[in-house]
Every structure is written in structure tokens, then in C-alpha cells.
Automatic annotation (TrEMBL):
PROSITE patterns: GNAT. The gene is argA. One of its GO terms (cellular component) is cytoplasm. Residues 5-145 form the N-acetyltransferase domain. It comes from the Bacteria. Keywords: Acyltransferase, Transferase. It comes from Candidatus Desulfovibrio kirbyi. NCBIfam families: PRK07757.1. This is Amino-acid N-acetyltransferase.
Length: 169
């Protein structure tokens, strides 16, 4: 893995590239699409990773959901860049942001269960996420028959150095 793989906070000029990545994944049924206006309004939640050619090839967001809980969402790495630790680095960047926001718990609704369990997340019943369900899920086309898996991580129990890790591997 190149040392250039360290994620950075997204900028407004990254929105169209993030939108393209998310749209491509949404067309394959891997996640829900996000409108451009949503992305502009939530750009502060996003981290991106770039190729050596300075193209945005991956993104991930940490979205606060409740006073002590956040969601890891919109995680995508371009297909030709997968398997290099970029997704792991993006999630770690978001987890590191939990300290700044004073979030104690994070979750993800995903189809990528094994990816998240390798990062220390545990499968939970969606019933432990009532704030997410009532704020967002009730407006989703898949509700109430969502087939995504809920995964949870208590970040308050992680050592500071693990949260702060910027290494890709």
C-alpha cells in the first residue's frame, strides 16, 4: 500500500466524484443513492482517498445520529482499487473522528458483514438502533423489509492509539 492512501477530509470539489462513486454502487444494489444536494449539505461527514493521479477512488462518512451515536455510511472504494486496504483506512479515519465528536458508539447498516467484523464490529439486531430506524429507515423504499445487516462498535472501549491509527494496513 502506498503511503498516499491516507484518507483526508472531503472538500466541496469532491462532491461530484463522491456522487459518482455512490451512484455506481447504488446501481449494483450495494447501498442507497445520495442526491447531490444531500452530499453538499453533509460533506463535512465525509473522508475520501485519492489515487496517485489525484482521482477520488473511495469515500466514507461518519454521520452523527444521536447524542452519543454515529453511523458509518456511504463506504465505497472503486472496484479497481479494492483489496488494498483503502476501505479499512476510510473506516479507521471515521472511527478516529468519534473522539472529536465525543461519540461512544457507531454502527453501520451494510451487506459487507465480514468486512466490518474484521474491523471489530459486532452484528446486532436493528432494534438496538431506534434513532436510525425512526429518523431514516422509515423513509426508505426497503422499509420494513430491509435486508441490510446492522453492525455495532463501542468506540469508548477502544484504546486511543487504535482509534488514531492512520495506517492503511
Amino acid at each position: 500500500m502506498s503511503k498516499d492512501c491516507i484518507p483526508r477530509k472531503a472538500h466541496l470539489e469532491d462532491v461530484k466524484a463522491i456522487h459518482a462513486l455512490l451512484l455506481q454502487a447504488a446501481k449494483k444494489g450495494l447501498l442507497l443513492p445520495r442526491a447531490l444536494i444531500y452530499l453538499y449539505g453533509h460533506i463535512r461527514n465525509f473522508h475520501v482517498v485519492e489515487s496517485p493521479e489525484s482521482e477520488v477512488v473511495g469515500c466514507c462518512a461518519l454521520a452523527p445520529v444521536w447524542e452519543d451515536m454515529g453511523e458509518i455510511c456511504s463506504l465505497v472504494v472503486r472496484e479497481d482499487m479494492r483489496g488494498q486496504g483503502l476501505g479499512r483506512a476510510l473506516v479507521r479515519a471515521c472511527v478516529s473522528g468519534c473522539r472529536e465528536l465525543r461519540l461512544k458508539k457507531i454502527f453501520s447498516l451494510t451487506y459487507q458483514e465480514s468486512f466490518f467484523t474484521r474491523l471489530g464490529f459486532n452484528v446486532v439486531d436493528k432494534d438496538v438502533l431506534p434513532q436510525k430506524i425512526w429518523a431514516d429507515c422509515v423513509n426508505c423504499a426497503k422499509y420494513p423489509d430491509c435486508d441490510e445487516i446492522a453492525l455495532f462498535l463501542d468506540v469508548s472501549e477502544l484504546p486511543v492509539r487504535k482509534l488514531a491509527s492512520k495506517n492503511c494496513r
